[in-house]
Structure formats: structure tokens, C-alpha cells
């Protein structure tokens, strides 16, 4: 069994084994002609059920054959130009190379004595990101598992900053008074975080958005006033720079003004829009981000990085101290005096992947402009897609894209019942998924069902968009035709 351990004597076996796996994936990527096979849960479950985990095959080739059957054949392939559903990007090769290196060396980024250079590389990437944001020299940050964790940590810092010098039961009583302001289309991790942080059920105040799906700052100002008047504490405003549903960017400079005026922590959730930090022509769309107290970035969304790769950045390094605990077995206090850099002092996680290496390899091979160019391309594509949709009488499209998302709904001329139109759109999404020809997402707007393209693949063309719109219309028409038959 020791021959399976990766070490000095097995380096050759490692090379062969991993190469064999890579060759399978390469062959798969080269030949996938659809983003999905359309396999059903019922068809796939028994194949996985029947495998006896207590009877190993002892042979890598046989296990890879089996993997083809239980996973590779029917996986959802984000690199396919007709995968248009969620915030998943095709990944860049330098990052995948980084992934292979980081899992083989297996550094853990909690302490210097488990990572050495890895710690410095992560710190340099944090500094690089902060420079792009426009934060000053006091800024800092840490890599996290994803945007949800980044948002949680940001709100933890905001909570602690909102009531300096308090502790114990007094603190938890005052938790009831804390309020977070976020737009009605902000990410659900804001509410989850509030719950985890022990805030009251009504702690997250939902601020309406305009037709452009951006937070209405007049409403925000009104709610902040009300908060003060009621003797409550405006703990934080979460501005979303790229909403999950629409890619809309809240008005950051106006929100920064209000945060300053009311003494609220400004968090910018740029999980999606962070790609603009590398953009050559659209960076201005997130101007004002430099006034935030904290920023969430998901490199695994708009920097074309494999999951996971994310960070929380803060204007003032000292605020990360709210997450600092010292343990004799790991990061004793004396190490701070000895200036030993232990990233665990800033993190909610302990053992932590060296995800930063993927971004490092990407920047060293392609450069930031390369990433920015890819993101600019998908934003341009969304603009073209919007024109197609706006000119297409079969469709209603919600808002001109600020990033790379299109939300639309099939509206047959002959049908006026909105509930029937809802059903036709829901049916079309399901039928398309079952066909495997394309994958699209869905959401609700104004109580009605809409469909969504999240465009993150520069290989997707306007022809792909047109073709998928035709497929959707075809499925929806089929549903309505059958529905007429049922009625008659
Ligand atoms: C995706 C997303 C998140 C959550 O990020 P994960 O990496 O999926 O945890 C948070 N906020 C916004 C706006 C997002 O789009």
C-alpha cells in the first residue's frame, strides 16, 4: 500500500498515474459536443449505488474506466460554448497547472511552517488585488473558500467594528440592534451570514432596486435615517458589484457617501464583478470600490480560475484582528513579535488550500491584461446578445447588461395568461436541460419566471446565442401546442 504514497520512491508512478488521468480529461474536453448528456438522476443513481466502496479495484486504469461511467461522461462541462447557466467560467490552463502543483506539494496556508513561500505568494496577490481596488498601504486580506465565506467574514468584522469595546452578554443583547442594508437582489449569503453571526431575524433590511436592478440610494438613505431614529445601529451596507441575477452594479460612490454619513461599514460584494479589476476598458464601472471597508472577490467567477479561488480584502489590516486567535500548538502569540507571517491569524479557516498559486500562475503566464481581455469579451458578447433579444419579438428582456448576464422570457404572441407563459418558460428550461443541447438558468422577476444566460465563455458566439434562443422557443412552442391539445 505504501506504493500509493507520493514520495521520493514513487515520483515515477505519480507521473504515470496523473498523466493517464489528464489524458482522459484531455480526450473528453476535445470531444464533448454538448455541455451535458441530459442524464437523469434516476439513470445515474444506480450506477453509483452499485459500486462497493469496500471492494477496491487496485488498478488506476480500471478506476478511470469506472469514473468515465459514473462521472466524466455525464458531467456538466462549463468549457462548452452552450453552457450559459450559472456563474461558472471555463478555466485557464496556467491555473489548472497551478492546481496540479498545489495539490501535489499540498502546502497548508495557515502557518509559515506549513507553507513558507506559499504564504508570501498569497500575500503578494492580496497586495496586487488591493492595488487594483485602489486601497492604501494599510490594506490587507486573505484567500477564502468562496464569496459566501468572504461575505461572512466581512460582516463579522463589520459587526465587531460596530460595537467597539463591548463583550459578553452585553454584546449579544446589542446584537439585536444591528442592521445590515443590502439590495433586494443581493446574494443570499448576506442573510445566511447574519444568521450565523447571531443577528436578529429582521437584521437584513432589503433596499429596493430600480428598473436597472441597482440599489436605490434614495431608499437606502431613508432606511438609514429610520434606523438611527429607531435607536438601531447601521452595522453595514452591502453594495453588490455585479448581482448574481442581473450583473447590475450598485451605485458605489453614492453608497460610500451614505456609509460615511451614517458611520456604517461599507462592504462591496464583487464576487462577480471583480473581473473588472483586470479589465482594459470597463474598470470605471466599479469606480468607488476603493472607498469600501471590505471587498469580496471571486477569482473563480470572472478571473477564469478553477473552484475554489476567492478572497476578502480590507481597507485596514487591523480589522482582520477580529478573527485572530492564538493557539500554542499552531500560532503562539510570540510569533507575532518574531514577525513570523501566519495567515491563520487572518482567516476563518485553519488548514487551507494554496489556491493563490492558481492566480499566481495565471498572472505570470498570461498577465492581468489577458484575463481582463477575456472578461471584456464576454461583457461585449452580452451587449450583442441584448440587442438580439431586444429585437426579437418572441422575447422580453429585462435590463441592458452591466456585466455578462441576460435575463429574458419567452412571450408568445397568442398567449396572454402570464401563468401559462411562466409554465412555457419553465418547461423550455427543463426540456433544454434534458436534451443536453445547452444549459441555461432561471430566476423570478416581478413574481414571473424568467430565463437567464450568464455568459462567461469567450468562445460563445452570437450564433450560439441565436441558436439557443431558437431551441428555447421551439421547446416553449411545443409545450403550448400540447397544452392547447390538452384543453381541447
Ligand atoms: C456567487 C456569489 C456569491 C457567493 O460566492 P461563492 O463563491 O459561490 O460562495 C456571493 N455574492 C455574489 C454577488 C455572487 O454572485
UniProtKB/TrEMBL annotation:
Family listed: Belongs to the group II decarboxylase family.
Keywords, ordered alphabetically: Decarboxylase, Lyase, Pyridoxal phosphate
InterPro entries in alphabetical order: Aromatic_deC, PyrdxlP-dep_de-COase, PyrdxlP-dep_Trfase, PyrdxlP-dep_Trfase_major, PyrdxlP-dep_Trfase_small
Gene Ontology CC: cytoplasm
Entry's Gene Ontology BP terms: amino acid metabolic process; carboxylic acid metabolic process
GO molecular function annotation: aromatic-L-amino-acid decarboxylase activity; lysine decarboxylase activity; pyridoxal phosphate binding
EC code: 4.1.1.18
Designated name of the protein: Lysine decarboxylase DesA
Organism: Streptomyces liliifuscus
Cofactor requirement: pyridoxal 5'-phosphate
Tagged with keyword Lyase: yes
Pfam families recorded: Pyridoxal_deC
N6-(pyridoxal phosphate)lysine found at: 301
Entry-linked SUPFAM superfamilies: PLP-dependent transferases
Amino acid at each position: 500500500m505504501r506504493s500509493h504514497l507520493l514520495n521520493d520512491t514513487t515520483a515515477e508512478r505519480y507521473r504515470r498515474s496523473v498523466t493517464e488521468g489528464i489524458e482522459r480529461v484531455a480526450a473528453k474536453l476535445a470531444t464533448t459536443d454538448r455541455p451535458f448528456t441530459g442524464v437523469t438522476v434516476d439513470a445515474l443513481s444506480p450506477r453509483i449505488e452499485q459500486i462497493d466502496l469496500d471492494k477496491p479495484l487496485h488498478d488506476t486504469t480500471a478506476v478511470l474506466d469506472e469514473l468515465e461511467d459514473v462521472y466524466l461522461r455525464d458531467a456538466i462541462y462549463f468549457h462548452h460554448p452552450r453552457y450559459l447557466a450559472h456563474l461558472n467560467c471555463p478555466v485557464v490552463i496556467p491555473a489548472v497547472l497551478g492546481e496540479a502543483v498545489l495539490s501535489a506539494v499540498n502546502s497548508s496556508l495557515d502557518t509559515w511552517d506549513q507553507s513558507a513561500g506559499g504564504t508570501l505568494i498569497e500575500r503578494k496577490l492580496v497586495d496586487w488585488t488591493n492595488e487594483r481596488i485602489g486601497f492604501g498601504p494599510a490594506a490587507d486580506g486573505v484567500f477564502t473558500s468562496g464569496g459566501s465565506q468572504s461575505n461572512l467574514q466581512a460582516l463579522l468584522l463589520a459587526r465587531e467594528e460596530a460595537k467597539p469595546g463591548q463583550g459578553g452578554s452585553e454584546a449579544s443583547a446589542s446584537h439585536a440592534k444591528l442592521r445590515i442594508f443590502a439590495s433586494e437582489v443581493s446574494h443570499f449569503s448576506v442573510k445566511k451570514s447574519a444568521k450565523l453571526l447571531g443577528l436578529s431575524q429582521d437584521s437584513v433590511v432589503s433596499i429596493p432596486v430600480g428598473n436597472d436592478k441597482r440599489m436605490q440610494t434614495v431608499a437606502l438613505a431613508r432606511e438609514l435615517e429610520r434606523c438611527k431614529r429607531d435607536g438601531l445601529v447601521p452595522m453595514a451596507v452591502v453594495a453588490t458589484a455585479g448581482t448574481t441575477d442581473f450583473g447590475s452594479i450598485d451605485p458605489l460612490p453614492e453608497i460610500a457617501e451614505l456609509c460615511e454619513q451614517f458611520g456604517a461599514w461599507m462592504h462591496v460584494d464583487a464576487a462577480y464583478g471583480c473581473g473588472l479589476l483586470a479589465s482594459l476598458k470597463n474598470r470605471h464601472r466599479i469606480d468607488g470600490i476603493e472607498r469600501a471597508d471590505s471587498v469580496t472577490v471571486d477569482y473563480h467567477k470572472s478571473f477564469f480560475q478553477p473552484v475554489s479561488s476567492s478572497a476578502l480584502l480590507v481597507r485596514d489590516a487591523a480589522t482582520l484582528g477580529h478573527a485572530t486567535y492564538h493557539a500554542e500548538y499552531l500560532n503562539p502569540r510570540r510569533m507575532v513579535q518574531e514577525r513570523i507571517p501566519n495567515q491563520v491569524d487572518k482567516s476563518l479557516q485553519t488548514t487551507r488550500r494554496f489556491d493563490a498559486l492558481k492566480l499566481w500562475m495565471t498572472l505570470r503566464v498570461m498577465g492581468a491584461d489577458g484575463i481582463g481581455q477575456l472578461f471584456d469579451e464576454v461583457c461585449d458578447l452580452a451587449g450583442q446578445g441584448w440587442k438580439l433579444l431586444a429585437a426579437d419579438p418572441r422575447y422580453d428582456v429585462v435590463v441592458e447588461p452591466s456585466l455578462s448576464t441576460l435575463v429574458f422570457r419567452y412571450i408568445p404572441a397568442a398567449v396572454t395568461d402570464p401563468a401559462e407563459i411562466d409554465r412555457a418558460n419553465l418547461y423550455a428550461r427543463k426540456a433544454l436541460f434534458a436534451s443536453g443541447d445547452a444549459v441555461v438558468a432561471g430566476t423570478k422577476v416581478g413574481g414571473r419566471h424568467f430565463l437567464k444566460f450568464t455568459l462567461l465563455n469567450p468562445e460563445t458566439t452570437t450564433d450560439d446565442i441565436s441558436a439557443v434562443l431558437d431551441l428555447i422557443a421551439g421547446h416553449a412552442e411545443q409545450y403550448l401546442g400540447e397544452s392547447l391539445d390538452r384543453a381541447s
